[in-house]
Amino acid sequence: MFLTNLTLSNFRSYHHVETEIPRGILLLSGGNAQGKTTILEALFYCAAFSSQLAENDRQLIRFEELKEPVAVARIVAQFQKSNTEHKLEIRIIQETANFNTRVRKEILLNGIKTSAQKAIGTFPAVLLIPQMTAILEGSPQERRRYLNLTLSQSIPGYAQALTEYNQIISQRNALLKLISERKADPQQLDYWDDLMAKRASFIIYHRIHALLKLEEFAQEAHLRLTANQEKLCLNYQPSYDPAKDSTGNEPSKYVMSNCPDRSSFSTDEIEKGFHHRLNSIRNKEIERGLSTIGPHRDDFRINGNEIDLGTYGSRGQIRTALISLKLAEINWMQTKTGVYPLLLLDETLAELDHQRRNDLQEWLNTCNQGILTTSDLSHFTESFIQKHVVWNVTGGTIQK
Ligand SMILES: Nc1ncnc2c1ncn2[C@@H]1O[C@H](COP(=O)(O)OP(=O)(O)OP(=O)(O)O)[C@@H](O)[C@H]1O
């Protein structure tokens, strides 16, 4: 895929900017708070239909625009995919009526309104912002969010299965609570258990296979970035593990060799096992009024030379592992969909040592299309800067 044009209107600090985007690597250079990250944020919004930086969509509408009765922020990305031109337009709209303010979004693909769930995967992108070290250091929720977003972009039906699974969990939890208060019949759970096992097995199956493939690609990238010093492993820790019987021990958080091979399980086998497990813990779940196993409780850990980097990694180690994971994501998405995603890297060279910077730049030289931001061009080699396009971003404007 190639992004060819980008238009931003009333998005964050941008009043209106309309620009062609070159192929290959584009470096956005500029001082702090000039609007570099905003461009990456807007582009990744086209992939995920949510911001990875804002708490809510309202924050994305330019302050001045918010004074209008109807305030609209617009992102338009034009791109080529499989030799066809596409146009993706996102409008984030704040409306005020009867003293009530609400913010909604509209997504138009080639002029036709669509939903985020249907459109996900249309504009594949991989984003790395410094805050994403939370994938390693943060809570399991951060890692599930990361996995879900990555898989939703590349696996047809994953986003829908996830939405349905989350709805099932809410309904099932409400029922468990009623049963625990003796206000409903436990047999009513049978219906929800069937639905839950079906959706859960689909999600677990794809997480198993995606993490195995991501690990393979991440290991390759990481050995390159660490001069063969560190072996990276992604250790899936599903809350229902098809490889274990109901009394199995948890694998150690720190030792990768304990990681069981789950790749031979079919979705049917996972579904059956999941169902069996739900039956065996039914009383406990009723007591707690909660769904205690399933993809909503999964985790995965990232280990370097068998050490959990989220807990023990240095800043540089964590950053490098994150870069390896992101490079793996590109390879995995391309293998899975046949489409090369757009790479978006925010201040990625900062905090890397000289050798790792050079290795990453070498890799970037082979990249299909990527947009990089930097507030310090001296992080890049002279030859890298000569080879690629550099634009300056100042006060919400782009100077070419
Ligand atoms: N809704 C908004 N309306 C107007 N300005 C905003 C809005 N949201 C954020 N900004 C401003 O946009 C500016 C640009 O932010 P951005 O994160 O893109 O800068 P940057 O060039 O990446 O800086 P840094 O190098 O410090 O990361 C910031 O000064 C920020 O306060």
From TrEMBL:
InterPro entries: DNA-binding_RecF, DNA-binding_RecF_CS, P-loop_NTPase, RecF/RecN/SMC_N, RecF_2
GO biological process terms, semicolon-separated: DNA replication; DNA synthesis involved in DNA repair; double-strand break repair; SOS response
Main location: cytoplasm
Keywords: ATP-binding, Cytoplasm, DNA damage, DNA repair, DNA replication, DNA-binding, Nucleotide-binding, SOS response
GO cellular component: cytoplasm
Binding-site residues for ATP, renumbered to this chain: G30, G31, N32, A33, Q34, G35, K36, T37
Location of the RecF/RecN/SMC N-terminal domain: 2-377
Pfam families: SMC_N
Function: The RecF protein is involved in DNA metabolism; it is required for DNA replication and normal SOS inducibility. RecF binds preferentially to single-stranded, linear DNA. It also seems to bind ATP.
Record-stated family: Belongs to the RecF family.
HAMAP family tied to this protein: RecF
Name used for this protein in its record: DNA replication and repair protein RecF
Organism: Flexilinea flocculi
Gene: recF
